[in-house]
Design a protein that fits this description.
The protein is α/β, with parallel strands linked by helices. The protein has a single domain, classed as NAD(P)-binding Rossmann-like Domain (Rossmann fold). It is built from four helices and four strands. It starts with a strand and ends with a strand.
């Protein structure tokens, strides 16, 4: 299973997504989209493993998310917490 931030980003990985079970789409900077992402994963079923490797380091601006959180915090910390709390418990969580 692959994750893409948007439909456009999903199209950009079309060459490798055909080898995956599928693609779930949601922007981790948005708590609402992260919750929807968890629902997409749950509709597929429990995963064997979930690897949280999305993150940002230096953003060009210090803008906030739709919920008012700093973007770096939302992507690097809150999204992983929300996903872990809402998805069916995988056998491995990395």
């Amino acid at each position: 299973m692959l994750h893409a931030r948007s439909a456009a980003r999903a199209e950009a990985i079309a060459d490798i997504s055909s080898r995956a079970l599928g693609v779930v789409i949601g922007d981790l900077a948005s708590a609402a989209e992260t919750k929807d992402l968890a629902a997409q994963v749950n509709s597929i079923g429990a995963m064997d493993a979930v690897i949280h490797n999305a993150g940002v380091y230096q953003l060009p601006t210090r803008d906030a998310t739709p919920e008012g959180h700093p973007r770096t915090l939302a992507i690097n910390t809150l999204a992983a917490f929300i996903l872990t709390a809402l998805i069916k418990r995988p056998a491995r969580l990395i």
